[in-house]
Amino acid sequence: MSPSLSPDGLLRRRRQLPQLGEVLVAQGDVVEPLDVVARTTQSGGLALLNVSRELGAGARPADAFLAGKPGQMLLRGETLARRRFFLGLRERKVTAPGDARLLSSYGPWVYLARSPSMVEVLAGYRGRVVEVHQGWGVVLEIRGALLQGVWGGGGESIGVLRLLGPHPEESVGPERVDERCRGAIAVAGAGVSARALGRLEDVGARGLIAGSLSLDSFPLCSSVSFPVLITEGVGAWSMARPAWELLEGLQGREASLVGRPVNAWEDEWPEVFVPGTGEHAPAEPAVTGLAAGQRVRVARDPHAGRVGWIESLAAWPQPIESGARLEVAVVALEGGGRAAIPLANLEPI
Amino acid sequence: MGSRSVATGDPLDSFLLLDWGTAYTKATLFERVEGRLRLTGWGRGPTLAGAGLAGLDRSFQGALERLEAMRRRPLRRETGASLSEAGQPGVALALALLSAAPPLRLALLALTGRYSLESARRAIAGCHAELVASEALDEAPSLEAAIEATLSSAPEALVLAGGMEREPRAPSGMRTLAGLVARAVLALPEAERPVLIFAGHPAVAEELRPLFAARADLWVAANIRPRLETENLAALRQEVDETYLRRRRMGAAGTLAVLSAQRRGRASVQRPVLTAAQALERAAERWWQKSGRSTVLTWWGAAWAIVAAAGPRGVGVALRRRGVPDPASDLASRLAWLPSPAPPPEALLAYTNARLRPASAPQSAEEVLLELAELRQLLAQAAAEALPQACEGQPGAWVIQQLLLGGGAVGNLGPLPMGPVLLAAVDATAPAGACELYLDPAGTVAAAGALAWHRPEEAAALLERESLMAAGTLLAPSGRIRPGSPALALRLRGGPQALAVEVRAGGLERVPWPGEGWAEVKLRRGLSLGSQGEGLVHLQGGLLGLLLDARGRPLPDSPPPGSRRSWLGALGWRGG
Questions:
Q1: Is the distance from CB of B189 to CB of B163 less than 8 angstroms?
Q2: Is the minimum CB–CB distance between B461 and chain A shorter than 8 Å?
Q3: Which residue, A149, B13, B343, B416, is most buried by CB atoms nearer than 10 A?
Q4: Which among A235, A287, A341 has the least Cβ separation from residue B48?
């Protein structure tokens, strides 16, 4: 299980509601990234109030004091329950803590359902609906370039790709960020400084793709309003050259950035996708394992981040630097050199 | 193939275990040879991604293909999907272990922080679960706030515990809490409703049952803390494990085509899929019952560290998850075992990057050292939960007579760093006295544990010494004497050559000793090997030999600077 990279391919992406709702498109429909494909209402959670205690009525059942009936909607501040004293001359009230529906009572307590919110699932990608799962969502067929990363956060967005530097080895400072980044998904080779991250937020960038981020900058990612995708890891790693070249060739094109965390169980990775023709090899991750002739990226030291071509696969486990014996491939590294690298540390490109 | 039976009690002629790990999926075959079940082959392939079960099924097919190629024997029918039925080539019993799936999101609500909450937390520590909320009524600002906080964490399951059984009638606080929680759960929309697992006073459970009627949302376990001095951890653990497997769709008939042949054939297996922790717990228990020796199994996978223990106090199991660490809080502490005074910045980076790619393997000596540091730290945390439930002794000095290290990552580390790997496991569990050491790169113990759920006697046969990889024996006297003074002297007899070794206090020495034999052990006054005693003792050797540990017990958490590097060196570590 590893992230993948493809310049042009045919992919499928599930777009699904978190709970049962309504699908708004039909099989065969062509959708744009901002089209709503499904929606549902999600409950706002429960509120539990000890109404009788607040009315000074001890543990007496709350239903004797309720101002409305189960099922009734209440606006914030509206009277939920009341108790009269002194022959009805004085009154004590409990009001709704927010917009909510009165559900039921149990002893002195009352259950309220906070107002539900509408949850909409956008298409997220430009593509065609090939499967409809009634009430749940759709599967889209999309064609284009794909780059997946090892870390993501901040949700989803759409914007135009904009490179912040001239090469993948450059770590970007705030001077590289200007008004042209407004509405764009910024691309930085070897990461961005904390100040550059803040500047991207200030100018209204819609996303960041970087080879790496420093350990200190990671917590800042949760404070920015746009999604972030990291392709290599933590530290000062340059973006792998094939990834950089792919994004460089797509500069100025509209991209979908999905900054979700890695979920290997569901085969979900943070990714950026740019619509294309899909005429070339499929972009889905290889599932049949690695093979001779395949282009790969090395995931771990001592050759981390380097790219090469598999020359051969060893038939039996071989000794490596640590002394362990593992299944390895002999990889001809671009830029020179040859190394036996554990299969677990190779990512197909 | 001979007779095949699962239900009749006849000896199994073959048994297949599938192990769905985060990095690798393994198929291990055991066959009856000369009257005994023996490991006869295994195949391993990468765990492939892809929408949960579909990915796992493809992963399994890959591992099985390799196993068939190795054994030159078909295990599947032509469809490639299912194990063959009786009368055709195949296996008599197939079971599976799961550790690749994400943990169960679990919330815990209890009556008292000190008793029911603490006991329930100990039970849950032994499950593949992530505690997303934890509230005790006596510590929360209000009952309403505790319930709202618990439910707002959107758990998949909610454990409700509390109510000691001093009287048949439940305490009113527990009845109120349970009534409120049950109605709150039922008031949620069905898609957002957690499974309610009740582990409190039985009288309250009876009050809850009618509310849930025929629904599947309520599961009742034995009271986690019926009395002050009694805990029922196993019952809650089992309910949480079952919920986890159901939620990950492992219990559904037909989901695992590969295991379905057993149902169509003569036999029926109730639990074809278990968690790795369930299997290890059962293996530890079985080994303890069979040998009468307190047993600790440590397991190191790509996503989990597990410690299972069985001994005179009972059975305990605990897990720790190997996620991406939080740089601000636990990153440095996870690497505290490194031989340098403080982890260098590049080590923190390398470690975090390794965790971003959990299926990758350490390649350089430095990366192996990082892995060992994490192994020691997470196993120590799990051991702190599991060992008090099973072993006699105290933190830093537990009476452990058999210690085993297994799991997929042990196989990844390979044979050379065996010494450092065992040292990390020893430091995590701190055995005191004489302790036999084992390695299990093939997963025999997990297989025995899975088999023990169905065929306990057959499982016991897999726990013979010859089925495991004996690494040697640790001699670790308890007590403390002045560092540098002679602590332990050993004279070996009956081996290939007579050998005398002396270890000074604070030191650690390895003596190659492949076989077994008698040795004369002398201890400095103030030190003790417990029931093993001094004098002439019979010692088992192995791949590592004898490990003479004169560092004293309880084992110090912060050893003198530089000493850890020398200990690693004594165990054959030649890395940085």
A1: no
A2: no
A3: A149
A4: A287
- Model confidence pLDDT, tens digit, residues B223-250: 999 999 999 999 999 999 999 988 887 6
Q: How far is the C-alpha of B243 from the C-alpha of B234, rounded, in Å? A: 14
Provide the 3-class DSSP secondary structure of residue B408.
helix
Closest Cα partner for B438 from B287, B553, B554, B313?
Answer: B287
- Report chain A residues whose CB lies below 8 A from the CB of B143: 50
Pairwise CB contact (< 8 Å): A19 & B101? no
Residue A40 identity: T
Q: Amino acid identity of B1?
A: M
How far does chain A reach from its first CA to its final CA, in angstroms? 13
The tens-digit pLDDT sequence of chain B (576 residues) is 333 444 445 678 888 898 888 888 888 999 888 888 888 988 887 777 655 566 677 777 788 888 888 888 777 765 444 454 444 556 788 888 888 888 999 999 999 999 999 999 999 999 999 999 999 999 999 999 999 999 999 999 999 999 999 877 888 899 999 999 999 999 998 888 999 999 999 999 999 999 888 666 899 999 999 999 999 999 999 999 999 988 887 644 334 544 544 444 445 566 778 999 999 999 999 999 999 999 999 998 888 999 999 999 999 999 999 877 776 667 777 787 887 767 778 888 888 888 888 888 888 888 888 888 888 899 999 999 999 999 999 999 999 999 999 887 666 555 457 788 888 899 999 999 999 999 887 889 999 999 998 888 889 888 877 778 899 999 999 988 888 899 999 988 765 567 889 999 999 999 988 888 888 899 988 888 887 667 888 889 998 899 999 999 988 777 776 777 788 888 777 664
Kindly list the residues from chain B whose CB atom is less than 8 angstroms away from the CB atom of residue A139.
Answer: none
Neighbours of B437 (CB within 10 A): 26
Q: How far apart are CA A266 and CA A84, in angstroms?
A: 57
Q: Report the C-alpha gap between B99 and A345 in whole angstroms.
A: 21
Dihedral angle of Cα B388, B393, B395, B397, to the nearest 10 degrees: -140
Task: Could you list the beta-strand ranges (E) of B99-173.
Answer: 104-110, 129-136, 157-162
- Which residues does B555 contact at the CB level (< 8 Å), separation at least 6? B396, B397, B427, B430
Count residue pairs from A and B with Cβ separation < 8 A: 169
Q: Rg of the Cα trace of chain B?
A: 25
What's this model's pTM, rounded to 2 decimal places? 0.91
Does B554 sit behind a cis peptide bond, omega within 30 degrees of 0 on the bond before it?
Answer: yes
Closest by CA to B489, choosing from B478, B503, B477, is B503
Distance from CA of B501 to the nearest CA of A (A): 28
The pLDDT value recorded for residue B574 is: 65
- If DSSP codes are grouped into helix, strand and coil, which group holds residue B451? helix
For residue A287, give how far its alpha carbon lies from the nearest alpha carbon of chain B (Å).
6
Question: Residue B265: what pLDDT?
Answer: 46
Neighbours of A317 (CB within 10 A): 14
Using a CB-CB cut-off of 8 Å, the residues of chain B touching A46 are 148, 151, 184, 187-188
Sign of CA dihedral B105, B106, B107, B112: negative
Cross-chain Cβ contact A285/B361 below 8 Å: no
Helix (H, G, I), strand (E, B) or coil at A36: strand
Which residues of B fall within a CB distance of 8 Å from A299?
Answer: 357, 360
Cβ–Cβ contact B356 with A under 8 A: yes
DSSP string, A263-327: BGGGTB--EEEEE----SS--SPP-S---TT-EEEE-STTSTT-EEEEEEE-SS-EE-TTS-EE-
CB within 8 Å of B329: residues ≥ 6 apart: none
Complex confidence, ipTM: 0.86
Instruction: Give ∠ CA B545-B548-B549 in degrees, rounded to 5.
Output: 135
- Cross-chain residue pair B413–A324, CB shorter than 8 Å: yes
